[in-house]
Design a protein that fits this description.
216 residues; five-stranded parallel sheet; 9 helices; 8 strands; 15% strand; binds BIS(adenosine)-5'-pentaphosphate
């Protein structure tokens, strides 16, 4: 099963994708994580996109389509993918259809997390993650069970994203409204869009999400 999680920055896409990966064996394909890894490794793509991410703008479609195409060629993606952060433009959505069809795969669900944008700033500025395994946390909503120790891998080094500040978040939200939200009708026309209240608790969102996946 291949699904897209859609929603503005901080909607909870990554949180839910990590849990689906851990509990259902699906593969989280986070384009933000892929780009941050490229930046860290100083690959040619990483060098090119570093300032784009820092500004909260969208990376160009050609880079993103190549990145997703290469990732879909890795065999682990055959068991089902959660697209987290892709597609973000109409062109990327059309390219995804092509990339999946070329590999004999199809898209099953597009799930939009509906949220109150004002509350998202608080979510984003409070976010941090494990520097070792990437597990996500929040200063208020999801602290590690033992202070300073990752629940998943036991590491004690945590990090925050440089683009997680109130100013850049506004730019990222504007990009979502202008370029990403308008792709919903493309999928609505195929009857594959479901909506979930992303302001509910993380557990409730997860339960609703899995109920949609289990409907098939
Ligand atoms: P990306 O990494 O995808 O960032 P984003 O879309 O801005 O999404 P976030 O990761 O900020 O939010 P999320 O929805 O995953 O929220 P999370 O679950 O962490 O992209 C970064 C950048 O890369 C972009 O700005 C762009 O430059 C570039 N890029 C990436 N893909 C691209 C593409 N396809 N095309 C072009 N450019 C691209 O949750 C946030 C916090 O809230 C967490 O701390 C969490 O614990 C908490 N939380 C989650 N759910 C709940 C809940 N229900 N209740 C309370 N707290 C919650």
């Amino acid at each position: 099963m291949n699904i897209i999680l859609l929603g503005p920055p901080g909607a909870g896409k990554g949180t839910q994708a990590q849990r689906l990966q851990a509990e259902r064996g699906m593969v989280q394909l986070s384009t933000g994580d892929m780009l941050r890894a490229a930046i860290k490794a100083e690959t040619p793509v990483g060098v090119k996109v570093k300032s784009v991410l820092a500004a909260g703008e969208l990376v160009s479609d050609d880079i993103m389509v190549d990145l997703i195409g290469e990732r879909l060629d890795q065999p682990d993606t055959e068991q089902g993918v959660i697209f987290d952060g892709y597609p973000r433009t109409q062109l990327q959505a059309e390219a995804l259809d092509r990339l999946l069809a070329e590999r004999g795969r199809e898209l099953n669900h597009v799930i939009e997390l509906e949220v109150d944008e004002e509350a998202l700033v608080e979510r984003i500025v409070g976010r941090f993650s494990c520097g070792n395994c990437g597990a996500g946390y929040h200063d208020v909503f999801k602290l590690p069970k033992v202070e300073g120790v990752c629940d998943v891998c036991g590491a004690s080094d945590f990090k925050r994203r440089p683009d997680d500040n109130a100013e850049t978040v506004r730019t990222r939200m504007a990009a979502y409204r202008a370029k990403t939200a308008p792709i919903l009708p493309f999928y609505e026309a195929r009857g594959m869009v479901s909506r979930i209240d992303g302001m509910a608790s993380m557990d409730t969102v997860y339960d609703e999400l899995t109920a949609i996946l289990d409907r098939d």
